[in-house]
Amino acid sequence: MKGGHEGTERGGDSEQGEAVGSYQPPPLPCSPQQDLKTPNCLWRDENGKYWTYVGGDIDFQAYDGKPPANAPPTLSPAQAAQIAAARLKMHPVGVGLGPDPSLNSYEMIPVGFPIWLWAEGGDTATKSSTASVAGITVALTAHLTGITWDMGDGHRFTCGVGTPYVRGALPPATPSPDCGHTYTKMGHYTITATTRWAIDWRAGTQSGTIPFAMSQTREIPIGELQVLVR
Fold first, then answer.
1. How far is Cα 149 from Cα 159, in angstroms, rounded to an integer?
2. 19, HSE (Cβ side, Cα atoms, 13 Å)
3. What does the domain layout of the chain look like in residue ranges?
4. CB 198 within 8 A of CB 76
5. Of residues 136, 230, 117, 99, the one with CA closest to residue 176
6. What is the DSSP string of 202-213?
7. What is the pTM of this model?
8. How far from 111 is each of 15, 182, 183, CA to CA, in Å?
9. 3-class SS shares of the chain: helix, strand, coil, % to 5
10. Does the CA dihedral 131-133-135-138 come out positive or negative?
11. For each of the chain's 230 residues, which pLDDT tens digit applies?
């Protein structure tokens, strides 16, 4: 998801030196189906000011003056919140896995051996931000609702951030206290950790929640230990 820049109103004594109200021939109006970053797409905010996207992450040009005959739809607070949420800088967690199969001579985890799972790196803490989109101020708070683990063997469950595995701290084959799994068949599996967020937003008297998710994967080999009997 792309990150956290605030929209910039240009006009008056702006960097472009173009007065709001100089009103060039208007761009084409937006339709509700168009992306608001479509070139020459014009919309108006709740205060009656007209805006158009002119490039980059924050380049929105403001217009004042007589509306065009085919006036475009108003940008709603919910639409502004969607744009502001898309600018939040969020990073998915990595798949923490223990014991690490690369650290034993077999380079795999035996069938039936409990593994520990945890969120490694990425974002897990609550984030708050305020953004301005086309003249609408949007307050955002993003909080983690859980991490869904798809183990690649048909098992899927949700945990929190989990507990990191510390080699030698506990007896072998001790299960994770809060987030773990045991494979029952040999194979090479892909573990997918999907971080799930709820982004609460408020713009004026309106508010809502936007769900958001990001994923990372890691491969894990599962095998059998052979005992040689003479």
1. 8
2. 3
3. 8-75, 94-223
4. no
5. 117
6. EETTEEEEEEEE
7. 0.64
8. 64, 8, 6
9. 5, 45, 50
10. negative
11. 333 333 333 333 333 323 233 334 445 556 555 565 665 566 666 666 666 655 554 455 555 555 555 555 567 888 888 888 888 888 889 999 999 888 877 788 999 999 999 999 999 999 999 988 877 899 999 999 999 999 999 999 999 899 999 988 999 899 999 999 999 999 999 999 999 999 999 998 999 999 989 999 999 999 986 644 44
What would the two tokens of residue 24 be? 């060039």
Q: Which two tokens stand for residue 221?
A: 């080999």
160 CB-side CA count, 13 A: 8
Spatial separation of the C-alpha atoms in residues 78 and 84, rounded to whole Å: 10
Cis peptide leading into residue 211 (ω within 30°) = no
Look up residue 125 and give its DSSP letter.
Answer: S
CA 131 to chain CA centroid, nearest Å: 16
Query: Which residues lie closer than 8 Å to 163 by C-beta, 6 or more apart?
Result: 116, 118, 176, 177, 178, 179
User: Residue 66 burial by CB count (10 A; 0-12/13-18/19+): exposed, middle or buried?
Assistant: exposed
